[in-house]
Design brief:
Layout (H helix, E strand, L loop, with lengths): L7 H17 L5 H8 L5 H12 L3 E3 L6 E3 L7 E10 L10 E7 L10 E6 L13 E6 L8 E6 L2 E10 L2 E5 L8 E3 L6 E10 L2
Parallel strand pairs: 3-5
Antiparallel strand pairs: 1-2, 3-4, 5-6, 6-11, 7-8, 7-11, 8-9, 9-10
């Protein structure tokens, strides 16, 4: 099967179906899928399932629980969703997995990349809003102007990096928030560069 680039929402539907089959032995209903995706109604779910069926990844046989998985995107990569990160006031990035998301290898091409869920609205000017998932490439440094995930006094935040007269700053993309200095303290530093944003 050729590599299939799945939109994040379709990948999530496929993952919920797989989890139900593995844990319960039967697929979820449309209403259960809607609940899992936190959406009202089943019309959007039906469209996602129809798209996955056209791509040859599942088949419906009729009935409420009639979904059968036929395969997964060849070469698809499961990327962990790890904790949360603030786009506003920094919050603790807990090292617990919220789950995984299957991405096309062309999107997740770094060995140790991971996803973090954004909380807050300090980066709205960069089209990163509360609840988004940011794909992070781990690296200890970044270029001026790049959006990074940084540890600041033991807490993680996502901001734009700026250097000025030998000092490093974390800049918000919302005038309601203030910039923060990235000091050389051992509890502060760059964790990685934001290389993608996914919204559900």
């Amino acid at each position: 099967m050729p590599t299939i680039a799945l939109p994040p929402r379709q990948a999530q539907v496929l993952e919920l179906i797989r989890e139900s089959l593995e844990e319960k032995g039967y697929p979820p209903s449309l209403r259960e899928l809607a609940a899992g995706l936190k959406v009202v109604g089943t019309r959007a779910i039906e469209k996602h399932i129809a798209a996955l069926e056209r791509k040859g990844l599942l088949r419906r046989r009729g009935g409420a629980r009639s979904i059968e998985l036929l395969g997964r995107p060849a070469g698809g990569r499961r990327v962990p969703i790890v904790g949360r990160v603030a786009a506003g006031v920094p919050i603790l990035a807990e090292e617990n997995r919220e789950g995984e998301l299957t991405l096309d290898p062309s999107l997740a091409r770094w060995p140790d990349c991971y996803l973090l869920r954004v909380k807050g609205d300090s980066m709205t000017g960069a089209a990163i809003i509360d609840g988004d998932l940011v794909l992070v490439r781990p690296q200890p440094s970044a270029d001026d102007g790049e959006i990074v995930v940084a540890m600041l006094e033991g807490e993680a935040t996502v901001k734009r990096l700026a250097r000025e007269r030998g000092r490093a700053w974390l800049l918000p993309e919302n005038p309601s928030f203030s910039r923060m200095e990235l000091t050389g303290h051992e509890s502060s530093g760059i964790l990685g560069k934001v290389v993608g944003v996914f919204r559900f």
